[in-house]
Design goal:
This protein is α/β, with parallel strands linked by helices. Helix content is 27%, strand content 25%. It contains nine helices and 36 strands. It has a 13-stranded parallel sheet. Strands 10, 11, 14, 15, 18, 19, 22, 23, 26, 29, 31, 33 and 35 form a 13-stranded parallel sheet that branches. A seven-stranded parallel sheet has the order 5-8-12-16-20-24-27, with no helix packed on it.
Length: 488
């Protein structure tokens, strides 16, 4: 385009371009949301900017670049498949149409504070940062498959319109590669956010973000790979957060977050591998939490944060914080959506043993056996109840000693008052009520008293009771000892 065809505003930009200098069109009314009413003195045609970026003048010894602030840009900035060797900085501008940078190669792209109907930049290759800080997008931001050598900044950006369904994700970074960070604290979206399959070599920062897509997957980040952390403190979501298969080697920090998807799955991180998962001081989750087969080094979730339904079969963790009595943690295992499953109990017991709290570990394993008993047929439940009452399934051995002592005292007193007759008086030993009661209680040991005397009437039934309970106690004690040895 010849210089004489340019408007005065466009001529200013053309003259500043080879020098890499900025042009600021801001006046009194500088809200880009009202940029459609800006006059020709601050209006630029998109095709003029395109010509500058693809074939603009350069000056030796200077770094050319497009640096414009507070302009109204009409038409579509079409750089599809173009090779732009200069940085593009269009701050606080109003775009009439969504720029198209699909497949383009660019130095840096800065649109901070601008208002746009969307951005198409799939498969973009950027050597510098891509910054949409504080931007307002009414349409989708498409960056799927993009390869960004530096960071992607979306802090304070607003995407989508409240109450409207855009039909596609408002932010699309699926299968993108980001050389450093995705930096988006304070991001507000009305619609879905896609990060599935993305690779972020630094961190993802969603502190204070608000993501809204009721009844849908508001954050789709399956198999997301992050180099360090995902920071999402004070995150607010309405819709499902899907991190299935994600890899976060350090910390997924959801402290003070509020996750809500009533009737659905508020948080899904099944099969994820995460260093530390934090939900410290978070609001109670509204909706199911699915952590099936996830592997964590540390899990920091207070009991009051867990929802009424969870899916935690196969969840593995080494350390559980804060350290609380087992009785505070056990109600969570009752909320398993698939009913009784042994693995969550064993994992919780292992976590307690890791920190040296063997008493809590025994409490958890006893709770597992009691929970399992409820799934058994009636006869097995009765036998389990007897084992529980007698020795607490082997986890309460002192209880067996108490039962034995009580029965021994009862038998000793009863037979001391009513000596049973001898079967063979001439051969019978001297009767000892204590040894006789002990002989009846211990089925394996024979002191010669039990076989030498035969009580009658009510005392005969008492002897049967001592023999039967002795067998039950001996069997349950043996089972408990076996179980303890297996745990060792």
């Amino acid at each position: 385009m010849e210089p004489m065809e340019l408007t005065p505003a466009e001529r200013r930009v053309r003259e500043a371009f080879p020098l890499g200098e900025g042009v600021d069109f801001r006046q009194g009314d500088d809200d880009p949301a009202r940029g459609a009413s800006w006059g020709p003195e601050r209006t630029l045609r998109a095709e003029v900017l395109r010509d500058l970026l693809l074939d603009g003048p350069v000056r030796e010894g200077r770094t050319a670049g497009l640096k414009v602030t507070g302009a109204r840009i009409t038409g579509r900035l079409d750089l599809k498949y173009g090779a732009v060797g200069h940085p593009v900085r269009l701050r606080s501008c109003h775009f009439a149409k969504a720029p198209d940078l699909y497949g383009a190669r660019i130095g840096a792209l800065v649109l901070s504070g601008s208002v746009l109907p969307g951005l198409t930049a799939g498969n973009l290759r950027a050597e510098g940062v891509v910054r949409v800080t504080g931007c307002r997008f009414t349409g989708p931001v498409r960056l799927q498959g993009a390869k960004l050598s530096a960071a992607f900044f979306a802090d304070g950006a607003r995407l989508g319109e409240p109450g409207e369904d855009p039909g596609e994700a408002v932010l699309q970074l699926n299968h993108a590669e980001v050389g450093t960070d995705v930096w988006a604290p304070g991001l507000v979206t009305h619609g879905r956010v896609h990060l599935n399959g993305a690779v972020v070599r630094g961190q993802v920062n969603l502190n204070d973000a608000e993501l809204t897509a009721p009844g849908r997957t508001v954050l789709h980040a399956e198999v997301l790979v992050v180099g360090t952390d995902v920071h999402a403190m004070r995150l607010r979501t309405r819709g499902r957060v899907n991190l299935a298969g994600a890899r976060v080697p350090r910390r997924l920090n959801l402290a003070h977050a509020r996750l809500s998807d009533p009737g659905g799955t508020a948080l899904r991180a099944s099969s994820a591998v995460i260093g530390e998962l934090w939900l410290r001081d978070a609001a109670p989750v509204e909706g199911t939490v699915n952590l099936r087969r996830a592997q964590l080094d540390l899990l920091h979730v207070p009991p009051e944060v867990w929802p009424d339904r969870v899916r935690i079969d196969g969840l593995g963790y080494r350390v559980l914080t804060p350290h609380l009595p087992a009785e505070r943690r056990l109600p969570l295992l009752e909320r398993e959506q698939d009913g009784y499953l042994p693995q969550p109990y064993e994992q919780l017991a292992t976590a307690y043993r890791t920190v040296g709290d063997d008493a809590a570990a025994r409490t958890v394993r006893l709770a597992r056996l009691r929970r399992h008993r409820r799934t058994l047929p009636p006869y097995a439940r009765l036998w389990g109840w007897l084992q529980d009452a007698a020795v607490g399934y082997g986890f309460r051995p002192l209880r067996a000693a108490g039962w034995l002592l009580l029965l021994l005292c009862t038998g000793t007193l009863a037979f001391a008052q009513h000596r049973p007759p001898a079967l063979k008086p001439a051969e019978a030993p001297v009767f000892n009520p204590f040894v006789y009661a002990l002989d009846l209680l211990l089925p394996v040991v024979d002191f010669g008293q039990g076989s030498a005397f035969a009580p009658r009437g009510w005392y005969q039934w008492l002897s049967y009771l001592l023999i039967a309970t002795g067998w039950v106690l001996a069997t349950t004690i043996a089972a408990g000892v076996t179980r303890s040895l297996n745990r060792q």
